[in-house]
Automatic annotation (TrEMBL):
GO terms for molecular function: metal ion binding; molybdopterin molybdotransferase activity. Keywords: Magnesium, Metal-binding, Molybdenum, Molybdenum cofactor biosynthesis, Transferase. This is Molybdopterin molybdenumtransferase. Catalyzes the insertion of molybdate into adenylated molybdopterin with the concomitant release of AMP. Pfam families: MoCF_biosynth, MoeA_C, MoeA_N. GO terms for cellular component: cytosol. Pathway: Cofactor biosynthesis; molybdopterin biosynthesis. It catalyses: adenylyl-molybdopterin + molybdate = Mo-molybdopterin + AMP + H(+). Its cofactor is Mg(2+). SUPFAM superfamilies: MoeA C-terminal domain-like, MoeA N-terminal region -like, Molybdenum cofactor biosynthesis proteins. InterPro entries: MoaB/Mog-like_dom_sf, MoaB/Mog_dom, MoeA-like, MoeA_C_domain_IV, MoeA_C_domain_IV_sf, MoeA_linker/N, MoeA_linker/N_sf.
Length: 418
């Protein structure tokens, strides 16, 4: 039996069909029930790629760690930064060597990029700008004091906070941590997700496509996945599986078996297993039915069975929920792009919509020109595979005219797909 009673908040927007919950309200509701997982691991930066920082790492070294040359050239004393000076080349320092004694007036030191500068080095003149005669250097172009010197600590000082908790580590952060001499970083433990598909039909001529799709979306560094396989439309088997998954998981993710027919048992099984379940009807196309709840320490998100609806539910609700559980500072993905409708079409208003669309060209401003990538149908996968992203339409839209501005979520940028 569907349980709409938990939709208690009045619907804020007149654009939405009566009785349906706007997507933003559903997201808020899911996030309200979620807190970041507790527990951390200490990992070397190179092993922590994609993980979420649990604490702010501090620099173990200043950067640069000592005054160093930014160029291949000659370090000069302040007294030799004058026309006519021709200091004698006293020695040579390469990157990694000790700086040695101070430079005196009348002395130049041959330095390579990254070399430690001896005390008394007032500037480095690039090798292209000098003439070398009898072991003496004369600058054709005199450097200004401080030229071509990277000062100790100019980028950051030892003890500085490098990155904020809640950030996901990418290649840039790994470089910064490595340079700053950070041995290990504290990252949140992975979110433990159990994944299942529900439906007696799955595995016959109807293949389970949602589970591989969702598993692919969950193949991320901050997630560890348990695949529970396909479960039949059997309330007892479902309840037993949910009870088992309640231990050792933070999220149980499922698709199918929620919309309320006499063959849809998942929310009922969750209650029978001792959990709580709410069945929602969203003002979202595709993806009207959705169920959520909890059992033990695990939150539950049950997506609709139709493949496109499962994908849209995962991208718009599952991803923000996972971001919250993983401890990311923000649940929002990258901002969508502005795009332009290449063709017009009509639609039934009342539900906001995500429509697979492809970029067919660019307009005069370089904005993508979009068209739906095939006939719409929440069970159709071919328009989805041919799309570059999802075009979004507000609930109130009845007609899209050629040239209309649209909001577009490219798969790669907005959802990390592809
Ligand atoms: N009388 C009504 N019928 C339906 C409604 C409704 O409001 N009233 N809503 C429709 C919408 S919209 C959707 S979406 C589906 C959602 O239903 P369920 O989540 O209960 O999903 P099922 O009935 O189990 O399956 C629907 C459809 O999807 C196929 N499916 C299911 N799981 C998978 C999978 N893992 N891989 C591939 N395909 C899957 C399944 O075979 C069905 O064809 O309900 C509509 N009906
Ligand atoms: O809205 Mo149903 O979720 O597939 O089309």
């Amino acid at each position: 039996m569907p349980d709409g009673t938990l939709i208690s908040a009045p619907l804020a927007c007149c654009d939405t069909a009566p009785g349906l919950l706007p997507l933003a309200a559903a997201r808020e509701r899911l996030l309200r029930a979620a807190v970041p997982v507790v527990g951390e691991e200490a990992l070397p930066p190179g092993m922590a790629l994609g993980r979420v920082l649990a604490a702010a790492p501090r620099a173990a070294l200043s950067l640069p760690p000592f005054d160093q040359s930014a160029m291949d050239g000659y370090a000069l004393h302040a007294a030799d930064l004058a026309p006519g000076a021709a200091p004698r080349v006293a020695r040579r320092i390469t990157a990694g060597e000790a700086a040695g004694p101070a430079i005196g007036a009348g002395e130049a030191v041959r330095v390579l990029t990254g070399a430690a500068l001896p005390p008394g080095a007032a500037a480095v003149v690039m090798e292209e700008h000098v003439a070398l005669r009898d072991g003496r250097v004369s600058a054709r172009r005199l450097p200004r004091p401080g030229a071509n010197i990277r000062r100790r600590g100019e980028d950051l000082a030892e003890g500085d906070i490098l990155l904020a908790p809640g950030m996901r580590l990418d290649a840039r952060h790994v470089a910064l941590l490595a340079a700053a001499g950070v041995g290990t970083v504290a990252v949140r433990r992975q979110v433990r997700v159990a994944l299942l598909s529900n439906g007696n039909e799955l595995g016959t001529a109807i293949r389970d496509s949602n589970r591989p799709m969702l598993a692919a979306l969950l193949a991320r560094p901050e997630v560890t996945l348990t695949d529970l396989g396909v479960l039949p439309d059997d309330p007892e088997a479902l309840a037993a599986a949910l009870r088992g998954a309640a231990v050792g998981h933070d999220l149980i993710l499922a698709s199918g078996g929620i919309s309320g027919s006499d063959a849809d048992h998942l929310p009922g099984a969750l209650r029978a297993a001792g959990g709580e379940a709410a069945v929602l009807k969203l003002a979202l196309k595709p993806g009207k039915p959705l169920a959520h709840g909890r059992i033990g320490g695990a939150l539950c998100l049950f997506l609709p069975g139709n493949p496109l609806a499962a994908l849209v539910g995962m991208l718009t609700l599952g991803r923000p929920l996972l971001a919250r559980l993983a401890g990311l500072a923000t649940e929002m993905g990258p901002a969508p792009l502005a795009a332009v409708a290449a063709a017009g079409f009509s639609r039934k208003p009342g539900r906001e919509e995500f429509l697979p669309a492809r970029i067919i060209d660019q307009d005069g401003f370089g904005l993508p020109l979009l068209e739906p990538s095939g006939p719409f149908g929440s069970a159709r996968l071919t328009p989805l595979a041919a799309a570059d992203g999802l075009l979004w339409l507000p609930a109130a839209t009845e007609r899209v005219a050629p040239g209309d501005m649209l909001r577009f979520h490219p798969f790669a940028a907005s959802f990390g797909l592809a």
